[in-house]
Amino acid sequence: MITLDQVRKRAEADAKTYGYYLTPQPDLLQMFIEGLKTNEDRYGYASCPCRLATGNFEVDRDIICPCDYRDPDVAQYGTCYCRLYVNKAVFESQNLPEVPERRPIEKQERAYGAAAAKTAPTQEKTETSTTAQPQKTEVKKKLWYCKQCGYVVYREDPPYICPICKAKKEFFAEITAGVLFKG
Description:
Blueprint: H1 4-17, E1 21-22, H2 26-43, H3 57-60, H4 70-77, E2 85-86, H5 88-93, H6 105-119, E3 142-146, E4 152-155, E5 172-175
Antiparallel strand pairs: 1-2, 3-4, 3-5
Helix pairs in contact: 1-2
């Protein structure tokens, strides 16, 4: 099991690598570190402590901390959605702005559908019962490459920004491949 100290050191190292800081509010920081540890103990990966995870790595891939949305959030608002990572100006002012959710609604719905399926009591279906069917959490992965630097990734959607060159999602193209048999 990972310790709180290890989680904190990993977050600090990641923040330093990208020129960020961790939130300046000690109580909030402790809550985030504990949330990351809890999620890592629960799922085997540190999903964002501010979003609902499904426990399915492929479905949650975009919200594994640091999430796909962190860098564009910090660039635009000075902090990420959950406010764990902040830029220097926000760190010094200690004013944590509100950040709107960037995660696509389809991914949010899939996470909430999976959570509802796990917690919903079993009900017998009757003609008058309108039990909502849980949404499928199947992920159809594709190969994507960054047209700017050539980074290749195999996942459902391209990352929000390229982790190598910071190109936007729009710079990614799907790689399609086929097999040609010569006889």
